[in-house]
UniProtKB/TrEMBL annotation:
GO terms for cellular component: chromosome; nucleus. GO terms for biological process: DNA damage checkpoint signaling; DNA repair; telomere maintenance. Residues 1-74 form the FAT domain. The lineage of its organism: Eukaryota, Viridiplantae, Chlorophyta, Chloropicophyceae, Chloropicales. Its main location: nucleus. It holds the Pfam family HEAT_ATR. Keywords: DNA damage, Kinase, Nucleus, Serine/threonine-protein kinase, Transferase. This is FAT domain-containing protein. It is found in: Nucleus. One of its GO terms (molecular function) is protein serine/threonine kinase activity. It comes from the Eukaryota. Belongs to the PI3/PI4-kinase family. ATM subfamily.
Amino acid sequence: KPYPKEVVAKISDLMLVFLKKVPQAVWLAALPQLISRICHPHTDVLKFIKHILSRTLHAYPDQVLWHLATVANSNVPQRRKGAKEVIQAARKRASEDKRKLFSQFERLIDELIRLCH
């Protein structure tokens, strides 16, 4: 049974407040769980997951890119799309150096995949 819109809105507001207060490093321990939910069927939950992932990627690209690499190259289109959206969101906020890192990492992963085939 779905919750009333008012309840969902209140929970969303509380989550936004919570997300601003929690240090980004906290999410590193939960990366596998967050990434595994990159196709969550509930749109509000999915929005928060992608928000957490993109902010954590922005703060810790060296750690998070490795976790997202497999999903960004998944055979499941929806998972691949979700990972690429997270990377794009982080890339938009990134400095020139971080954008360069994202591009270099993408090329590295492409070459590693090519090497394996």
